[in-house]
Every structure is written in C-alpha cells, then in structure tokens.
Amino acid sequence: NAGVTQTPKFQVLKTGQSMTLQCAQDMNHEYMSWYRQDPGMGLRLIHYSVGAGITDQGEVPNGYNVSRSTTEDFPLRLLSAAPSQTSVYFCASSYSGTYKDAYFGPGTRLTVL
Amino acid sequence: SQKIEQNSEALNIQEGKTATLTCNYTNYSPAYLQWYRQDPGRGPVFLLLIRENEKEKRKERLKVTFDTTLKQSLFHITASQPADSATYLCALDWDSGYALNFGKGTSLLVTP
Predict the structure, then answer these.
(1) DSSP letter, residue A75
(2) Which residue of B has its CA nearest to A101?
(3) Which of A44, A53, A50, A55 is nearest to A89 (CA)?
(4) Alpha-carbon span B30 to B8, nearest angstrom
(5) In chain A, which residues have their Cβ closer than 8 Å to the Cβ of B42?
(6) Which of B98, B102, B106 has the most A C-beta neighbours within 10 Å, making it the best mutation to test the interface with A?
(7) pLDDT for B9-52, tens place per residue?
C-alpha cells in the first residue's frame, strides 16, 4: 500500500492563479480531509468528506473547493490564490469504524506570491 | 467554541527521563482523544487513541491518561531518547468523528 499520496510536494503560484492539490489513498478509507498548517496556528481543517459525493466545510473553508467523485481521490482546488493561502497542506484519511486514527500524506508546501 | 490547548512552550528534557505533555480541552464531550507525532517536514503520525471510558492506555514506552472530569489528557514518554524529539499533537473529533480538530502541539527536545 502506498498509503496517502499528495502531489505536488512544492508549488509556487502568483496571486490570482488557480491550481489543484491532489490527494489519493489506496486503503479504501471512507473519510478524507484537508488541513493547512501554519506556524503558530497548528493544523486547521479546511474541508472533509465522509464518502464519495459527500463533502462538508471545516474551520477555514473560504477560498477552497473540494469534490469527491471516487473513494480514492479528494482534490483540493484553489480558484484564485491569495498570499494568505501560503501554507503547508496535508491530506488525511481514516476508516469510518470505531478506530478514528488518521493517516496523513507527506504534505504540499504552497507559496503564493 | 471548542478549544484544545497544549503547552506552546517547548519541553526540553534529558535522555532517560520521563516527558509529560498536557492536553486540555473545553466545550467538548469527547468519546475519545488521540495523540500524534509530527517530525519537521512530515505529516503527523498516529500514536495512541484513548476512549472516554478508559483511564489509561499504554504502548511500549508511551502512556496516555484521560480525565474527562478535568477535561485533560496527559501523554508520557518514559526512558526518553533523542529520537523522541518531535512535536506531539493532541486531537479530538470534529463533527461526530468525521474529521479531527488538533491542538497546536508541543515541541519536545530530548538531549543526550
């Protein structure tokens, strides 16, 4: 199993550009989520999904869109990047059963100029 | 609003000693609490989960306690080693467990 994979590892964008951060998992997990991590702020939940076709907002959803067309993939879209979106982004997945431990990807470091 | 608080100050301890990290929470009635480890430049890694009806949980040199009256969890690493140096994150459920809400983490440095 590859676990949770994220691409790209690094990305530099200009203000106003759009891009999609990719996340995939091969563990057949129903739950997937996106977090951003900023110095001094910890991990903050952006969006999450409880299964294909079902998504919901987390703590900091503004400026981000998600969709979940398959169990495996959960892309995060930035429609018009802003410097405030400079951060490290982590994708996570977990089973829907009684064990809620999450598996995290390696992260994408995004810089918006 | 729901809050999770971890000591923001780094914890420096000597190799061989026991490290104790604290996680306090408010406006939660959690069914369980989790601890994660994060190394620089990497994603968090799950360590332990403790349920509300469990007072203590152990895994090798790790021990977690959970006091739902005090709304506090303590995370202990016994016989600490320099390889234990990392940031440790406490997490509670977000929206009935569909995702996680994390504390800001406590940095642990174990010196030889």
Answers:
(1) -
(2) B46
(3) A44
(4) 22
(5) 106-107
(6) B98
(7) 899 999 999 999 999 999 888 888 999 999 999 999 999 999 98
